[in-house]
Specification:
mainly beta, 12 strands
């Protein structure tokens, strides 16, 4: 049980891009979303409204799982509300592109799958943007409410 998972001090001298694999994330609170923020400078978690995102996906009953924001204080990487029942969980693959760049806005791509509080599975694909040219030094993951009860969070550098 922890409120956040942070990856700080990305090794941008060795790796140009980064991938985070989140497996079997399980929330303590039912029907929540997985959020992401970037970290800049000396461990400053950016909570301004410079995030935009668009998500598209489907649930097993073919219900559309679409979402977007044009100026949020976070990136919602969830395809749907996440369940906290005994077997309900979610998994994500997050790509952060060229975080050290100060020329372009940062692009973040996410592939996700989750089981909602009704036991229905769904998938989604998200494209997000951190809309400043400030270099990104890390990432924070957290649920919209409550703690992260379980899960594996792994960071990989991509040359």
């Amino acid at each position: 049980g922890t409120a956040t998972v942070d990856f700080t001090s990305l090794d941008t001298s060795t790796y140009k891009n980064f991938k985070v694999v989140i497996s079997s994330a399980h929330p303590a609170t039912d029907d929540v979303r997985m959020y992401m923020r970037v970290i800049t400078g000396t461990d400053t978690v950016h909570d301004g409204t410079d995030y935009t995102y668009a998500t598209s996906g489907h649930r097993q009953d073919n219900a559309a799982l679409d979402g977007n924001s044009t100026g949020a204080a976070f990136i919602d990487i969830s395809p749907q509300g996440l369940g906290n029942g005994n077997t309900e969980n979610s998994s994500f693959i997050v790509y952060l592109h060229d975080p050290a760049s100060t020329t372009f806005h940062r692009l973040i791509n996410v592939i996700s799958g989750a089981i909602d509080s009704g036991g229905k599975s769904g998938h989604g694909a998200t494209n997000a943007r951190y809309g400043t040219t400030t270099a990104v030094t890390g990432m924070r993951f957290y649920f919209s409410s409550g703690n992260i009860d379980a899960g594996s969070f792994k960071l990989y550098g991509i040359k």
